[in-house]
Amino acid sequence: MTRMPNIIPITDLRQDATSIVNRVSAGEEPVVITQRGRAAAVMVSIQAYERSQRDLELLRLLARGEKEIEAGEGHDLDAVLAEADALLKGIRR
Length: 93
Hints:
This protein is α+β, with helices and mostly antiparallel strands. The protein folds into two domains: 6-44, YefM-like domain (YefM-like fold), CATH 3.40.1620; 47-92, no CATH class. The protein is built from four helices and three strands, in the order E-H-H-E-E-H-H. A three-stranded mixed sheet has the order 1-2-3. The model has no long low-confidence stretch (mean pLDDT 88).
């Protein structure tokens, strides 16, 4: 079953910004801000935002890889895996 989105009018945000920001920061659910009865913005926690940015970057890389494959460009699997290992070692430090 789909959960109902958290929707608040912008006037509520103006009146109680601190508790709304705390609620968003503590949870995983975004809050939709409405203005004049229409969705105007979405507020998410910094963790959710960073996760979405990482996911978006992965999708961009996949799309770029698909374009390279279609264009007949390619990379040696061993070289790609070696580069990935080097990147992972740098992250673990």
